[in-house]
Amino acid sequence: NQRSMTNVGIFRAYLTEYLRQHLLIRQDMTLMVRQLSSGAEGLPVEIYAFTNTVAWLEYESIQADIFDHIFAVIGEFGLRIHQAPTVSDMRAIGSLG
What pTM value is reported for the model? Predict the structure, then answer.
């Protein structure tokens, strides 16, 4: 087709498939990975999915594992996690003396 995929689009497709294969994510409910409006903070990516548990600690563990996976693979897509630097970060690199 004539659709041109970007690294962000491929990353979204990868995450969607990762969640479809995840044993602790409900497959009979809404599952979506989408990008939100970009801004000074970067391009937010939203993950919308349901776990197969309502136990709070299990849910938090599943969520943390998903984000650990994202942090581990994001560089493979030529992307990086963006966070606005703090004053301490700027001092550490010598920009604020």
Answer: 0.80
